[in-house]
Amino acid sequence: MSKTLASLHKYGNHVIKPVGSINVTAELNNRAQDVTFYVVDNAVSTVIGLPTCKHFDIVKVEAVDAHNA
After folding, report:
1. Residues 6+ apart with CB under 8 A from 61
2. Domain residue limits at 10
3. In angstroms, rounded to a whole number, what is the distance separating the alpha carbons of residues 14 and 63?
């Protein structure tokens, strides 16, 4: 685990200071990506960021035309 200066922000402007970070190669359905996970000393759920979710096709983001919605 490496030290980090990152701060994680939750809803309500609550800030979590990670105790460190770890870089791993995540693989799903024969697709791999280097991912940084932040280690925290709190009872919180694990979160995977949007760029990683998009890379693995876990979520898709589509543009919506607000004028025709």
Report:
1. 50, 54
2. 1-69
3. 30
How do residues 10-65 score in pLDDT, each as one tens digit?
878 888 899 999 999 999 989 899 999 999 998 888 888 888 888 888 888 888 77
| Cβ atoms 39, 1 nearer than 8 A | yes
**Number of other residues whose CB lies within 10 A of the CB of residue 6:** 12
- Report the length, in residues, of the chain: 69
| 8-9 and 15-16 strand pairing | antiparallel
DSSP label of 59: S
User: How many structural domains is the chain composed of?
Assistant: 1
CA dihedral for 44, 49, 53, 55, sign (positive or negative): negative
